[in-house]
Amino acid sequence: MTDPQQLVAKLWNYCNILRDDGLSYGDYVEQLTYLLFLKIADEQSRPPHNKESKIPKAYAWPTLLSKDGDELEAHYKHLLEALGKQKGMLGLIFRKAQNKIQDPAKLRRLIADLIDKETWTSLGADVKGDAYEGLLQKNAEDVKGGAGQYFTPRSLIQAMVKVIAPQPGETICDPACGTGGFLLAAHDYLVANHDLDKAQKRKLRSGTLHGVELVDSVTRLCAMNLLLHGIGGDSDEDLPVVTKDALAAKGEEYNVVLANPPFGKKSSVTIVNDAGETSKEALVINRDDFWASTSNKQLNFLQHIHSILKINGRAAVVLPDNVLFEGGAGETIRRNLLQRADVHTLLRLPTGIFYAQGVKANVLFFDRKPAQDKKAWTEKLWIYDLRTNMHFTLKENTLKASDLDDFVKCYNPKNRLKRKETEKFKSFSYDELLKRDKVNLDIFWLKDESLEDSANLPAPEVIAAEIVEDLEAALEQFRLIEEDLKK
Description:
By secondary structure, the protein is an alpha/beta fold. It is 43% helix and 14% strand. The chain has two domains: 4-137, N6 adenine-specific DNA methyltransferase, N-terminal domain (Ferritin, Up-down Bundle); 144-486, 3-Layer(aba) Sandwich (Rossmann fold). Strand 2, helix 11 (216-228) and strand 3 (241-243) form a beta-alpha-beta unit. The longest helix has 27 residues, at 460-486.
């Protein structure tokens, strides 16, 4: 079997059986990750590969195949605990791992019938990788599981990578990497657009892509996703993804940063007082290299991303609307960014493309520049409006790569100086931006046709979805105001 869709269907059908035992999609994908890793390591230790396995013999794949019933369950539990204490990629994938499959017979079937029947190393990296990506996407569609926040539409990721155009030898980072979508797209772009020599291929496998993720279980999915696409895994020291709080400290500098930071607006910690009452206290990030101290996560990620770019490094970051117009720290950060970076492009994204509801977002593109005294580095901000009169949904009318072709053409990655204005693509000078109240970058000029002509109205379900988006976004803003008033 070499079709990734067939493979996804086969693995996914079994998930529905386990759902009856209360296993979520996320739990299922996690258990698959452990078992796939063990099976692939076993295959690679045999001819023709003959690689030395990093998995101790007592926990290798054959030990799972040889057991059944309670003995299998006990061994699997012990195996997960032991491998979680190992170093390198092994420890990264098995860290804090737990068996969530309650029925040993179903665990046995997953091991012997589903995973063991396939020779995974004989499948191309694109088949294995695409199958795993398919599972991650299905997991993201499970709204109840909340995994959607880690999933950016692949068509959007590909367009962002296309215009940023990573080059061989450049280092690429995603400081909020989720399951690794941006890193994989950058990898695929480099392979497809450059004739890489042996040294460049080795560098691409190890030392080019760097991800940071806050949540252990998501790091695990990202590591496996990268591994199945042939990235990382050789060196225990040079892991392509790490679990840590990206905002805690500056860290290394990179040539390219691509990111969609988490949508939660505020960083907070829950405090329990002596009477047992709980309250949330905003976590304000104080860093010497930040222009403003705030508890707004996106504003902090924007400052962090600027700080980890090398001089002349390029960034593309997905940000919610409030980052473009919020006063206080928001205004301070926008002024500094326009001054110290070349903030050259803004893509206004349509609603209905993210699994998290109520998100109105944009992609901001900027280059970090060396310090200079008076003159601002931003001369013109070009804005492409993909939102007005655009109606998308997650299922019936999804955002496709072709929907972004015109943006890619207008962006003109080969020569940004030769851009031309169109109905959807306008430029605004630095002086014009400074004259706007609070340096508000939330600029739009197209007329909403549906307001003027009832014949142009989208389908009722699309209108309903957009109303929900607007209400969710408004509620989020009210929640923030309520939190601020409580302080």
